[in-house]
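Intended use. Records like the one below are meant for learning the mapping from a protein sequence to its folded structure. Do not use them to infer anything beyond what is encoded.
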Amino acid sequence: MSFIDAHDFPAGLVLRVLGIAESTYYDWRARQVSPSRRQLDDAALLEQILKIRAAHEFAATYGSPRVWLELRRQGVRVGRKRVERLMRTHGLQGAHLRRSKAPISTPWLSAASR
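Structure written out for the chain above:
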């Protein structure tokens, strides 16, 4: 859709060639000018998430469960999965422990594998 705006082609002709209804294009343009309420709410919520993660030294390691709990403590009514979605789409993730694969030292298992 942005291709039509970037070039000086007549919108009706390009849409007809592509087999796209004109109403689809004009609805898309309207959404670009004035975002939906959900998009505005998500932007405000993302700002709160970023504030929580910048609160102190270790807050940047907070994952979605801890961020969600902190939002609840602040009185923000939001679903856990919505916080997960916003954090995932903006590349925010918590720190997690990495477990190494330790060698198996059980005598009966090592003898059976020979």
